[in-house]
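S1.2 Input.
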Amino acid sequence: MSLFQFITSESPIEEIQNPHIEHLSIRQARDLGMELPNFIDENPDIDVDQPIISICDSEEHLDDIEIKHDLGFGDEVAEYSRKEFSGRLFWRYSPKRVLELEKYLRKMLEQSKEVEVWSIWLDESAPVRIKSTTASKLSAQDLKFLDISEGFTGPECLIIKRTKKEKD
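S1.3 Output.
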């Protein structure tokens, strides 16, 4: 069906919004003079005040990291993780972004004992490869499984633990 990447933790997960994306309603887009497809006027079920149009300053920024609580597939998360909190990861892997994600995960581990990072394919069941590391040893290479530019290789999870030493 499609790729689904998410993070789970026993502590609340901070949402990240892509600051380069602006969400507009149809009414706002019209007020700005944007041309919209004809089907919008022909469909009475479309809410013209709902922010359903996304605009971005560049294609490169379109794929910056976003983490959202609204998973869209909550049942899928429960099949893989028992952690109370979760956030869906939206992005396109790049060397710069993976370093941002690494920093975000380290920050999470200041509040949480353990964080899981998942990459699965919806509606596909296969054995999950599970790896683990500690916050101090976490590297961009550990997160390389999130890069699907050469294809999805199967479901994987990275468990990142905070050691007692790292807590102090």
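S1.4 Remarks. The chain has two domains: 3-17+61-167, 21-56.
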